[in-house]
TrEMBL record:
Single annotated GO MF: glutathione hydrolase activity
Gene Ontology CC entries for this record: plasma membrane
GO biological process, one term: glutathione catabolic process
Domain of life: Eukaryota
Protein name per the record: Uncharacterized protein
Length: 535
């Protein structure tokens, strides 16, 4: 969770990932208990609430208690995920999945009756009920259930002593904006910031013609996309070397590895590897945790006076490990899934992400905050994504679209209008900077919403067709949405990229909330069933 205080321009980070217990087995998808990590979300939310909450803690549970008592109609996206899991695990009993599949017959999904009691206890005692070992507390029931599996899962102290970390954000500059996010183990932050920071540095060392970009020149725009794709490969390989910076056993090595990603000389060497005329021959393997279906979701909220909050949550896989703690109605996580398994003999890549007591795995998600102080009041917005690394790549493209290609867009599009498209346009419409003359050789400093009166339009930027650099095999094929501009795709193919259209619903989602000067702005991804509300 990232909490941004606009009044003093500071961010407070709450990292509540789920660590490995003191006793564990190697994560095995065929043994659900081996996937369970020490839960952290409840403690994290409670700690943040004690510092920043405006309502009573108990008031936050009113909606959840009503849904637990009366049931609710599941969201379409939730049901789609249920069907995916059920098809993949036909013979494995999963109470939550099976229960959700009954909603149509009943007209609603009815959670386990014990869940309402658990929520009542949390509402009245804070996080104490969840983490204590008092008789009949959730903590004692969790330990008893997992210990009965015969695996020797954890100890009471693992739950009682769970700590919420409050790290310092990492920051980079991009197109005049400041981007900030989480350090490892939330490696979505390091991935996104290194990718966009290096894209910015590449343009400094080898400037693009922004006049040609604003005119939708396919060669210049294709070059920018090519750079983005190539740098995304390098960033994916790089974050595989990271580790939990809060684990005292590896802290020095983990911090050193992360610092090396943002070292100025190292960054220059990285961007110089990228040629504007060919693809990179990358022989390093991409760590498997980057391709997991994490069961993640994100929330972004802003108020009318002071705070913007971005939260990323994950279960470790779709619907966690499938088990429910008896007597609680609480569904267990599979938070140990992102840890790497035994490495091949002689391998050194990813050694910081091996499972160890108290260590938190690398997870490719992270909240993002974009801001500028280069103009009065400035642009300040939180950006959330879901879909693991796929969603993080989508968030990076949304930032590029908003910062570089929608300079002339109004903050609020007229009803029924089409957004100006440049980076991945589908109808030939253009987005031109206020000072851009056709054919002029311009760099981005000629017109930039970070330092001029222009605003950014995140809703339009979110709606652009997207691409994704596949990291599952060494070919690094590029997947795109069906509406992607064919001229740009042809240019990428000329440079050696293998292009495939994504055959189904696009996996990533992006949303944002914040401020353009004194105007509130929100955006949500219309690819799915997400929605936004303004109060």
């Amino acid at each position: 969770m990232l909490v941004r205080d606009r009044n003093n321009e500071s961010s407070r980070l709450f990292e509540f990932l789920c660590p490995a217990p003191s006793k564990f087995s190697l994560p095995d998808q065929n043994r659900p208990e081996s996937l369970v990590a020490v839960p952290g979300v409840v403690k994290g939310l409670h700690e943040a609430h004690k510092l920043f909450g405006k309502l009573q803690w108990s008031a936050l549970f009113e909606g959840a208690l009503k849904a637990a008592k009366d049931g609710f109609k599941p969201d379409t996206a939730l049901l789609n995920s249920v069907n995916v899991v059920k098809q993949a695990n036909r013979s494995v009993p999963q109470p939550l999945v099976d229960g959700l599949l009954t909603w149509e017959r009943l007209g609603r999904y009815q959670p386990p009756v014990e869940l309402e009691k658990t929520l009542q206890s949390l509402s009245s005692t804070g996080s104490e009920y969840f983490y204590s070992q008092a008789n009949n507390s959730f903590g004692s029931r969790l330990l008893s259930f997992l210990s009965s599996s015969g695996q020797g899962w954890g100890e009471a102290a693992d739950i009682q002593n769970y700590t919420v970390n409050q790290p310092t954000p990492i920051k980079v500059g991009f197109a005049g904006f400041t981007l900030e996010s989480f350090p490892a183990p939330l490696v979505g932050g390091a991935y996104l910031l290194q990718l966009l920071g290096n894209l910015d540095l590449k343009d400094t060392l080898a400037p693009l013609n922004y006049g040609a970009l604003w005119e939708n020149n396919p060669r210049e725009t294709g070059t920018l996309l090519h750079r983005f794709i190539e740098l995304s490969k390098l960033s994916a390989v790089a974050v595989g070397s990271l580790g939990d910076t809060s684990d005292p056993k590896i802290r020095d090595s983990a911090i050193s590895a992360q610092n090396s990603l943002f070292d100025p000389d190292a960054r220059k060497r990285t961007v110089n590897l990228v040629s504007d005329s060919a693809t990179l021959p990358i022989n390093a393997s991409v760590p498997s945790f980057l391709n997991l279906s994490l069961g993640d979701t994100s929330i972004v909220v802003t108020d009318s006076s002071r705070f913007t909050v971005v939260i990323s949550l994950y279960l470790g896989s779709l619907f966690g490990n499938g088990q429910i703690v008896p007597g609680t109605g609480v569904h267990l996580n599979s938070g140990l899934s992102p840890f790497l398994g035994p490495l091949p003999p002689g391998s050194t890549t990813g050694t910081l992400n091996l499972i160890s007591s108290g260590r938190r795995p690398l997870v490719p998600i992270a909240p993002l905050y974009l801001s500028t102080t280069g103009r009065k009041c400035g642009i300040r917005t939180g950006i959330a994504s879901s879909g693991g690394l796929w969603g993080v790549q989508d968030a990076a493209q949304t930032v590029i679209n908003a910062a570089l290609f929608l300079h002339a867009a109004t903050c609020t599009l007229p009803s029924g209008s089409k957004p100006p498209l440049a980076l991945v346009e589908t109808d030939g419409a253009r987005s031109r900077g206020a000072s851009a003359d056709k054919g002029n050789e311009l760099n981005r400093s000629s017109y930039n919403p970070a330092s001029t009166r222009g605003c950014i339009n995140l809703q339009a930027a979110t709606g652009f067709p997207r691409l994704h650099s596949d990291l599952k095999n060494i070919s690094y094929a590029i997947y795109t949405e069906q509406t992607y501009n064919q001229t740009l795709l042809s240019r990428l193919q000329e440079l050696g990229h293998i292009i495939h259209f994504w055959p189904s619903d696009w996996p990533g989602r992006v949303s944002a909330a914040g401020w353009n000067g004194y105007e509130l702005m929100t955006s949500y991804d219309k690819r799915g069933s997400w929605s936004s509300a303004v109060y």
